[in-house]
Write a structure and sequence with these properties.
The structure holds two protein chains of two kinds. Chain A contains ten helices and twelve strands. By secondary structure, chain A is α/β, with parallel strands linked by helices. Chain A has one domain: P-loop containing nucleotide triphosphate hydrolases (Rossmann fold), CATH 3.40.50. Chain B has one domain. In chain B, helix 2 runs antiparallel to helix 3, helix 3 packs antiparallel against helix 9 and helix 11 packs across helix 13. The chains are: A alpha/beta, B alpha/beta.
């Protein structure tokens, strides 16, 4: 579904990604771990098309198309979704108006008709229930005055509503207490299917107890220095990152 | 130049969509202003002597006054002798149905999107259309007649209801008030007159569309609206003007009188020609709007201002009666080289009077947008309250937003609150919406509509939809 080849990117002239290679197929969940500043969030933002990042080399093929040539909105319409680490507040626009606009834009892109108000309401009710969100959150302004946990839940609600082909979760677990983490994880697990893929960026092994990944990758200094299955995460939890950093130095 | 700035450049170039000129013979006054011209206007309109005299007094006073230079706007001096002060369409048919309206005129209304047909009846809007200076079509008279409501042109009111006009004209905005009010009083061409009798709730929104048409014609509307005791009326005023290269002067006066226990809701959508992207042409809009509230009464001004090259406008309320309420809800949008200096005056005289000011200014392009507001609490206005909120939004880095609040408090028991914020349309907000499949243009529309929501909520439904469309047109793609 997505092939990332030798991806290099800079922010303000500073190299952050130094040749990422990663392939995610339908039905797979990949966890990206790594110490602070290793480039995890940068990878998510580069894939989503944030203009603050400049791609200097490499290519990304998404659904057979050149992703890097697409505008951020077209990437979204093609089925890429980024759950933001810090969701943005949009005062005065209700969650439901925002989501209906987004769904209709994506449908229009695919040549489909707009969703009817009735179907939309039924859908949002169903999805909000999974995330144990009450109706007031749905009618309130997008993320305005939401607590950190509510914002993260709202990201997952949007993911369930837009039903993307590829979900990028950027530290969705940060700032969540254990109950909220369980709810958010439930949302992601409901979403997981043979028709989509997930790349989740996280600092902590804790998230992986609830969302069990098929693959775990360790990112360090803008490169994937080790890949494995879920046991790699447990090993990291036990040993930290230093043993890998040393390994990198040896091979360097 | 970043991509976003490119989008600004491309999209803010879009042309004014209402720029077309209707080709109708006009019966005009020669250029210039003197007592003869005033007599000519008054004579053309078959006015009684008292009206002519009032105009002449206003003119004499105007001659002693100087054009105000304090607003935060810049424009070349207006040559008041280079303006035609009267212009009326030559054919002035006696209208019983729309079939009798000049087809050219109907086409104009069609382009403006004014649905002058039976649909209006269904939506419950009666319309008095001012085309240049003379009112040419009025509908729904009968329904209003049944209730004793008078809704006609000010010219007709001078003829048919002289006692009301004589009593109230100039009572809220005297001709001595300011330079443009004096000018308007001398030369006003036409406008609307509304009287709602005691205890009557007007069953429909009253609506007037103004339009400036003939080249180099100043238009000077005069609107007088009286809500008698315990009555209610909602009045909608919409304006568009065709594209012209010369700047056109527009100096209206609107007077509202809200008697005991009455309520007036006055809504304006103004999208007069703002000039082109180089700042050439456009309307100069110098308006005096004021209402007086008697005991337990209320006046609510709502305005959405997206047009005009220069706007100078402060709809205000004199809260004369005890327990009276004044409200001002405003969205002012400036783009390209537009300049707006607008706000309100809330004058608290009675006890327990309350006022609310919600102002939203949006600046884009190279425009300048100023809020200027006065809250005055008189010494007898015990326990009066005011809440003001002035929010500014900037798009791009070549525009300006300014806030000039004036507070004059002469009573210790008053409570006055002022809040002001300035924000920039954030790239992070736009990216967030982009990432959900929403284009940058639509993203800006959503963000701006969210910003203006408190004001749009105050508009009647039909106007709210129009206002949102106007905002979208005015700001197409203005990203910073």
């Amino acid at each position: 579904m997505i092939q990332i080849k030798n991806l290099h990117a800079t922010v303000d002239g500073k190299k952050i990604l130094n040749g990422i290679n990663l392939e995610v197929n339908k039905g797979e969940v990949h966890a990206i771990m790594g110490p602070n500043g290793s480039g995890k969030s940068t990878l998510a933002n580069v894939l989503a098309g944030h203009e603050g990042y400049e791609v200097t080399d490499g290519e990304v093929i998404f659904n057979g198309k050149d992703l890097l040539e697409m505008s951020p909105e077209d990437r979204a319409r093609e089925g890429m979704f980024l759950a933001f680490q810090y969701p943005i507040e949009i005062p005065g626009i209700s969650n439901s108006v925002f989501l209906k606009t987004a769904i209709d834009e994506i449908r229009k892109y695919k040549g489909e008709e707009e969703i009817s108000a009735k179907d939309f309401l039924a859908l949002i009710k169903e999805k909000a229930k999974i995330l144990e969100m009450d109706n007031s959150l749905v009618s309130r302004s997008v993320n305005s005055g939401f607590s950190g946990g509510e914002k993260k839940r709202n990201e997952i609600l949007q993911m369930l509503m837009l039903n993307p082909a590829l979900a990028l979760l950027d530290e969705t677990d940060s700032g969540l207490d254990i109950d909220a983490l369980k709810i958010v994880s439930k949302g992601v697990n409901v979403f997981r299917s043979e028709n989509n893929g997930v790349i989740m960026v996280t600092h902590y092994q804790r998230l992986l107890d609830y969302i069990v990944p098929d693959f775990v990758h360790v990112l360090y200094k803008g490169q994937i220095i080790k890949s494995g299955d879920k046991n790699l995460a447990l090993e990291l939890e036990e040993k930290g990152y230093d043993w890998l950093k040393n390994g990198e130095l040896e091979t360097a | 130049m970043s991509d976003d700035m490119k989008v600004v450049e491309d999209l803010t170039q879009s042309e004014y969509k209402w720029g077309f000129i209707t080709d109708i013979d006009a019966d005009e006054a020669p250029k210039g202003l003197n007592e003869d011209i005033i007599r000519f206007i008054s004579n053309k309109k078959n006015e009684p002597e008292w009206m002519t005299e009032w105009r002449l007094k206003a003119f004499k006073h105007w001659l002693t006054m100087k054009e105000p230079k304090w607003p935060n706007v810049k424009y070349p001096d207006v040559d008041f002798q280079d303006i035609k002060y009267y212009s009326a369409p030559k054919k002035k048919p006696e209208l019983e149905s729309l079939d009798q309206v000049d087809p050219e005129l109907l086409k104009t209304f069609e382009k403006l999107g004014i649905p002058m047909d039976e649909q209006k009846k269904l939506t419950g809007v009666a319309m008095d259309v001012v085309f240049d200076s003379v009112s040419v079509a009025t509908t729904f008279k009968e329904t209003l007649n049944e209730k004793g409501i008078i809704f006609c042109s000010i010219s007709d009111a001078i003829k048919n209801h002289p006692e009301l006009v004589k009593k109230y004209i100039g009572s809220v905005v005297p001709y001595t008030d300011n330079y443009y009010a004096a000018l308007n009083s001398a030369v006003f061409s036409d406008g609307s007159f509304v009287y709602i009798p005691k205890g009557v709730r007007c069953p429909m929104e009253l609506s007037t569309y103004f339009r400036i048409n003939a080249s180099e014609t100043g238009q000077f509307e005069r609107t007088l609206l009286i809500a008698d005791e315990e009555s209610y009326v909602s009045y909608l005023e919409g304006c568009t003007a065709p594209m012209r290269d010369e700047n056109q002067l527009h100096a209206a006066v609107v007077e509202l009188i809200s008697m005991d226990n009455a309520e007036i809701k006055y809504s304006t959508v103004q999208n007069w020609y703002p000039g082109d992207k180089e700042g050439k042409g456009g309307i100069y809009n110098f308006v005096t709007k004021r209402g007086v509230c008697h005991t337990n009464s209320k006046i609510s001004w709502t305005q959405v201002e997206t047009g005009s090259a220069v706007t100078w406008k402060y709809p205000g309320c004199i809260l004369k009666g005890d327990n009276s309420v004044g409200e001002f809800y405003s969205v002012a949008v400036t783009n390209h080289h537009q300049q707006a200096d607008t706000g309100t005056k809330m004058i608290h005289l009675g006890k327990n009077t309350k006022s609310t000011i919600i102002s939203k200014g949006i600046s884009a392009g190279k425009s300048q947008n100023s809020y200027r507001g006065l809250v005055k609490i008189g010494k007898n206005a015990d326990n009066s309250r005011n809440f003001s909120q002035c929010d500014s939004m900037l798009m791009g880095d070549r525009c300006g937003a300014h806030t000039f609040p004036y507070l004059e408090i002469e009573n210790q028991s008053a409570q006055v609150e002022h809040e002001a914020t300035t924000s920039k349309v954030g790239e992070d907000q736009i990216f967030y919406l982009n990432q959900r499949g929403i284009s940058t243009e639509d993203a800006i529309n959503l963000i701006v509509n969210g910003f203006c929501k408190e004001v749009f909520n105050e508009l009647p439904m039909e106007f709210a939809v129009e206002a949102q469309k106007l905002l979208a047109i005015s700001l197409e793609g203005s990203v910073g």
